[in-house]
Amino acid sequence: MSFAFLKNVLFPRSQQAGNGWADGEARPNYQDSGNEMTSSGSRPGSTISSSTTLDLEAQKCDSCRPRPTSQEAEAKHGRFKPSPRMISDAIIGLSDGLTVPFALTAGLSSLGNARLVVLGGLAELIAGAISMGLGGFIGAKSEAESYKATVASTKKLIETSPCQTSSLVHAVFKPYGLSAMSTSTISNNLHESPPELLDFLMRFHHQMPEPETSRPFVSAATIAAGYFIGGFVPLLPYLCVQTDEVLLALYVSIGVMAVALFAFGWVKTGVVSGWRGRKNIMACVIGGVQMIIVGSAAAGAAVGLVRAIDRGQDV
Q1: What is the DSSP string of 267-280?
Q2: What is the pLDDT of residue 81?
Q3: Residues near 84 by Cβ (< 8 Å), separated by ≥ 6?
Q4: Which of 80, 152, 180, 202 has the most CB atoms around its CB within 10 Å?
Q5: Each residue of 108-147: pLDDT tens digit?
Q6: In whole angstroms, what is the distance from residue 298 CA to residue 102 CA?
């Protein structure tokens, strides 16, 4: 068999010509007859051994193997792909961190003391990161509790009211135009297995996938880290100047934050809509400009309020 395999690899064209197969001609089907494979469309007396057939199948094994999916490939190469919820939490933390501390430091800079701006900015940054992280933790815990409550009520509904759960299954498939008989068959099959029916109703009727157990901690850490990183950017210029050079730090902070807000708006929009194409690029530009407008409005309002309060006290 190994000799025939080598001959097939080294002289594939000569073998095909010897078997009488023309280019583009469909190969005949073979039927098993004892130890030999006989062609129904070949000349009388012509046979092909089973070993040759096995060798031909061995040549095709590479194309017959299933290719790994993208998720399996990522797991094999150790690639980490963040979930959409993690991206959403990071955007929430960064967006608040890039606007609120920047507005606060800009407002405190009107008092003319860089040390005061740094201390006030750090205090707000730490307190804000903790507050935002706790908010994300409580929100994720509430989501998990809501999921558990919905599972309990759905289990009770499956046990006590099969007619109502059957109507829920029919309501899920109604927009797809399935016949009543097909939907009834699916419903009957699901009702034979209560766990599968529960999973079906949670996913497609309630549209509530099961949350991960680590979701509250991941959400809290992601939002808090995003807020701290975003809020520390406008504070950096005040750490690099003298106490009486607060206006210089303010101008540098404004320039740094303009670039940071535009980059954040660009990336945030690109993650959602895409990066390529004229339409997506214009959407990214608009997203960056919108972030600059929001951050500038917040900073301007903070500076104006601090100055107005300071002047009122002087009067």
Answers
A1: HHHHHHH-SSSHHH
A2: 57
A3: none
A4: 202
A5: 887 778 888 888 889 888 999 999 999 999 998 998 899 9
A6: 8
Token digits of residue 305: 């309020």
Q: Say which amino acid occupies 286.
A: I
Gap between the Cα atoms of 35 and 25, Å rounded? 26
The pLDDT of 248-268, averaged and rounded, is 85
Measured CA to CA in angstroms, residue 93 lies from 133, 136, 221, 291 at distances of: 9, 10, 10, 14
pTM of the model: 0.62
Amino acid at 35: N
Q: Is 19's pLDDT higher than 50?
A: no
Distant-in-sequence, close-in-space partners of 41: CB < 8 Å, separation ≥ 6: 28, 29
Q: How confident is the model at residue 312 (pLDDT cuts 50, 70, 90)?
A: low
The pair of three-digit structure tokens given for residue 136, joined into one six-digit string: 């994300």
φ, ψ of residue 32 in degrees (nearest 5) = -75, 125
Gap between the terminal Cα atoms of the chain: 105
Q: Which helix (H) or strand (E) holds 32?
A: strand 30-33
* C-alpha dihedral sign at 4, 5, 6, 11: positive
CB 287 within 8 A of CB 269: yes
- CA 109 to each of CA 18, 59, 241, 265: distance values in angstroms, whole numbers, following the listed order: 91, 75, 13, 25
